[in-house]
Records
---
Amino acid sequence: MNVTVLGDGGWGTALATVLAGNSVPVTMWGAFPDYLEEMAATRTNHRFLPGVELPKEILFEPDLGKAVVNADVILLAVPTQYLRNVLEKFQPFFEVRKHHILNVAKGIEEKSLKRISEITLDILGPHSYAVLSGPSHAEEVARKVPTAVVAAAGQPSLAELIQKLFMNDFFRVYRSNDIIGVELGGALKNVIALAAGIVDGMELGDNPKAALLTRGIAEMSRLGEALGGNSATFAGLSGIGDLIVTCSSRHSRNRHVGEELGRGRKLKEIIESMQMSVAEGVKSAPGAYELARKSGVQTPIIDEIYSVLYQDKSPRQALKDLMTRDPKSE
């Protein structure tokens, strides 16, 4: 099996190192040929995964057609809001009988409200698709920190294939058939992580953080089930597992954005200071908000985060409004 990674960010690079360590032939493609050339020469990705030496077995190919010509698995590691454009470039080279699509990004497309499997269906038509998700920061995976994730696919044989490609003594992969639940878990937890960061930025302590994670997973499960996912999926790695790590880790870009909001900084200033790093939750929040409206599902945390990001509501007022909602049963 040959794998081509589309995207030169930290997560795609970290997974390329896992594959290379498993003796899987892997090629990386990115949108900026000069940077690919630099990565090949220095064997580092200093922008997105600094301090990690890249295995010599990883190949770098700036020509998209050449990058995918021998691939069996196409690994999509492009931020959600840029993925449609990359897929349109890839489509002329796509071979439905040959290529398995594996997505590792986490988000909801802002205008269409679509999950990534729906975006790939738009561009590529019916195809073999899987998603890999879970509590897995690139910085730790690249350093071989023990990690567990889940691969979801409609075909059990494809989930098993992904499992075999990636598993080793530090990277454990479980299987699932719930593509919708796994995708939504990865997308929605980023929105909740913004709220967790706000709690940290306001220095509110442990009680509100614990309450937020607990009510956040309940909210994710309600919305995920309404959209076709299995509620049990949200109790697993791509749900509560990913939520815990994203809401607590110093590596989390979404938690960082929330933390800065909690300290009083404006969103535009925060995003500009992050340069090329992407906090998927910022762009997924409008999609999550609109999907909840369309589904008739109550999502108070998502609603308040949307108001803070896009309606200039103060985090302190958002917190007050959450705490003073009508009494309910758990």
---
Amino acid sequence: MFGVNDMTELKRFGTAQFLNFALGFFGLQFAWQMRIILSGPVTENLGASPFLYGLIWLAGPFTGMVVQPLVGALSDNTVSKFGRRRPYLLGGAIIASIALWIFPNSQNVAISIESLIGFELPIWTGLLIAAIMIWVIDACINVAQGPYRALIPDVVPQEQHALANSYISLAIGLGSVVAAGTAPFLKYFFNYQMSIPAQFVMAALAFSLGMLWTCITISEKQSKAIDSKADSSENGDFFKALKDFFLLSPEVIKICLMQFFTWIGTMCMLIFFTQYSVHTVFGVPDLTSASETAKHLYADSVVNGTNFSSICFAIFNLVCFLIAIPIGILAEKFGNKRVHFIALLSMVLAYLGMAMTANTIYVAFLMGFAGIGWASICALPFAMLSKYIKKGTEGSVMGIFNIFIAGPQVFVCTLVAWFISKCMFITGEDLVNYHWEYSFVVGAVCLLVAAVITKFIKQN
């Protein structure tokens, strides 16, 4: 087993150990990527408007702001034979896997409930079940994600934290590539269209099996967990932990502010890209209230737009996968903030390009270019923060830091979604469509602000 079981000095990780360590995050990102790509088509088919779709996406930020800080603090003080992080990793994965199976079958579940109780339910019951499942999925992903990040300072030497986070970034890229690319690969090479429920089953298996492997192969510092329990009165108070977090260093506040604007920009793409692909690139009007004839007319375009979105996400994350380790190496040589600043600017340029074109080749290229920024976002802010973490508070700090990832999503899910819902136009067929590309303009501005803040962060 990789890792340590006592308070001795941490041993440096080799390549095989880093790859093994990142495998569980591969499964986590596989599930998260499937939820990103396909939640829009599933909920829109159940009647969700752009604004309602944004409100359903609030599951991510709310569970992130509440679940990760609490679970992070709990994992710092958990003592069990199974470890202090691993119960949350495996528990979150198992429950999320069940919800991943139910989510695309929400309408069938509603029909089954009707048959069981003997009377007809409201038409929106299927959408309600789907929304609840999204909340469960997002909550469980957050249950696993915070303790997973906290494992890095637990088992990896401090001088390798940037590289460890780069391997996490590599796992995020590879997991997303496989998740996004499987269905289009089968379609274009074998003429087999994988169903949306089948893709979610695949995600559930990847999440649960990946986390199980991590829990089996990564050993934790058991004695450290016991010490943490002894100090639970000091570390277990969330509000004290929040106060201590902001007292770590003035640079921590700058890092958090940078992260806040970064994730407004990032979520403008992650939340709305599939809808942008279907409705802007492929020109499909809004079908939530369209006739069955119109839905049938555009059925193939919806599938093609969804597959194109998957391909673009695969390219986006393939670039992330390919440059994740080089970014870690460059950060060790030139400094985290310099590399991160350049990566954010590359993402700004990609966003502005996508806001001005609907050409499939250009959009695919620009998504790949944006992957440079994504690789850095997944690694370097965490490496910047890890220099200020006190021993025994890793879970609490990573959980609190996640507030500045989850919080910005509230802005995107509400104000940006509302803004898009107001930017409608009538198509040639007298149907309604929306300017989904405007989300990239908002995202580019916020990423530019994050890049400017990065320049003011002092680093040793």
